[in-house]
Amino acid sequence: MNQRFQNAEIKLVRDKYAENELYVAVSSIGHQLESELTHFGLCPEECFMEALELLSEIAEKGEDILPEIESLWLCKENEYRRYDRQVSIDEIRKAVGIVFGFTILAIDSSRYGFYHHTLSEQLTMVVANHKWDGWEATLGQIFDVPLPDGWFDAYINEEPEENNDIKLPKELDTPNAQKYFAKAIEKQYMKSGENGKYHWMGTDNKGKTCELAYFCGKVYNYVNTISGNAGEDFPEESLNKLFGVKRLYSSLTQVYNAQKPQRWRSQIDEMFE
Fold first, then answer.
1. What span, in angstroms and rounded, lies between the C-alpha atoms of 231 and 61?
2. 100, 88, 109: which is closest to 138 by C-alpha?
3. DSSP codes of every residue in 4-29
4. Backbone angles phi, psi at 229, to 5 degrees
5. Structure letter (DSSP) for residue 237
6. Is residue 247 classed as helix, strand or coil in its secondary structure?
7. Secondary structure in 3-state letters for 30-57
8. What tens digit of pLDDT does each residue of 82-130 get?
9. What are the φ and ψ backbone dihedral angles of 108, each rounded to 5 degrees?
10. Predicted confidence band at 75 (pLDDT cuts at 50, 70, 90)?
């Protein structure tokens, strides 16, 4: 077995992260999973550090990580193959899959919908696309390991405040939405209503729907160009339903097609500075 982590490194990780709840989770079944890799050594300490490396990249990039997920897998798979070309691709993929599995376990602890729904699903799909014999059973073992709710939020220092009542549908629940909906409510531009709905109160100007459209465009990364939106897909249907409005995308294009920027835009822009 090709063991990359030596005794000194194992002890260093064990001593430094003994109280880390993710390390405890990895260690609880790490040796069992390692024993299933007959030729590729992946001790719990190395597995934990590899997962922590992925989590750090996710924390740094947030939603921008989505287009890179496949590349993250391939980079890790190629790295492991370079360690020992004699190890079968099936076992290499299982080793990478174990690291990804604990990464998914960690982000599943998040209270943010983007992490525990969108990103978790995308990471799991990548694992499935590179599956090995028994991959579902391996992930099942990992996902059965307990990890406290909010662990990942604490790790990235984005622990939601206790009084944060921003509840959004899965497709709208992103870190940006949580952050800027809360700011809009604080400024009294927006308020929450019954049955999970929200109401845009405005900035004391008449064009409330245009203001809302502009605000949502900034939250969901709309990028206006001559050819249209060059940013992310604008979730118009879900936003229309959330705010009880119609044709929000049409209002958004009206904002940008105006001959000069509306005065109220600066008030909304301040929230994003």
1. 16
2. 100
3. -S-HHHHHHHHHHTTT-HHHHHHHHH
4. -75, 120
5. H
6. coil
7. HHHHHHCCCCECCCHHHHHHHHHHHHHH
8. 888 889 999 999 999 999 999 999 999 998 889 999 999 999 999 999 9
9. -65, -20
10. very high
